[in-house]
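Lab notebook: predicted structure, single chain.

Context: the supervisor wants predicted structures on file for every construct in the current expression panel, including those that have not yet been purified. This is the next one on the list. No modifications to the sequence; it matches the entry in the shared construct table.
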Amino acid sequence: MGNDDIDVWLGLDVGKQSHHACALDRHGKRIVDKPLGQDEAQIRELLACLGGHGNVLLVVDQPNTIGSLPLAVARDMGVAVGYLPGSAMRKAAQLLPGDAKTDARDAYVIAFTALHMPDTLRDAGSDDETMARLKVLAGFDDDLAFECNRQINRLRSLLLQIHPAFERALKGDRITRDTTLALLEHYGGPTGMRRSGRTRVGKWAKSAGLRRCDGIIDDLFDAIGQQNVTVAGTQAVEEIVPVLASRIRQLREQREQLAAKVETLLEDHPLLTVLTSMPGIAVRTASQILLAISGDITRFNSAAHLAAYAGIAPVTRRSGTSIRGEHPARGGNKRLKNALWQTSFIAAFHDPESHAYHQRKRNEGKRHNAAIICLARRRCNVIYSMLKNATLYQPMHLTA
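Prediction complete. Output recorded below exactly as produced.
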């Protein structure tokens, strides 16, 4: 619904217990300016009252959590909804007189911006149950990923404190492998493993069903032999290490279970198969892409529009003859940007076509990160075409 079809612009500064509502007509005159309870009945009453003036557009500054109920009620009543990002709201507030920070002024800024600068508004998301469930699951997965990384960093810090060579032997993703976590959970660290000896540790690992463990065990014992001195606090650290290893293992299992739930949730979604047919895209990143576009690619009129939304399209800056050039975008939808980056990073090393394109950009003098962004931008064109036409990935798209 365009602004020509709207008669009332309702700005809602949402809060935990109550909101503040400010409604403007086409001439910018206030129709309503009052507090509003976080209550379905009050929200319905206000929207019904404003409906007497014509078509209403409800705009919030927070489309999730505390802003979910007003949006749900509006959709149920057939009222158009929109979302004004915080950064746009702050910039708009600077254009208006006064510098007070009150709920009433914030609600007015939202309504004023929606009326006079409709291009600043964003889609408030769909009311599709699948997308709503996906959003909750994806948010919880983000929390689990953050906590898992925090525990891994803590584990590395403790091992580095008592035995740097031992920590170096667990470089990269070695520290999160099932074999490593099981060894740390059982023996605690270098002192516990040294006490048991290479032979007994190897026998225990095989009896525990740990696969491909000989290489890691050999490297760990080589590292243990490089340090004879015992650092103060080693005993306390090796009492904590098994706890951290157990937590990391549990968090990884929870993420795997969550990924299975997401896959089950999306198994009937027609675009899941489309996205996962492209090298570098798995269920988790496919769900992030679908979530970022609200499951509807028709919101974007071109691949360039999608790339700009993701923040991977370069920004042109020109001012007279002194400032010229294109620079990396700093904004964009972070969820989509991260998903495109991660899939491109993986594809650059595991997909021959993507690797060739990435290498060509490197040969042109671009740094690794810049080359990945170029690859992400090119893959964005392909993803847009795949989603728009509901077709599986076809090779040879990235060679041009």
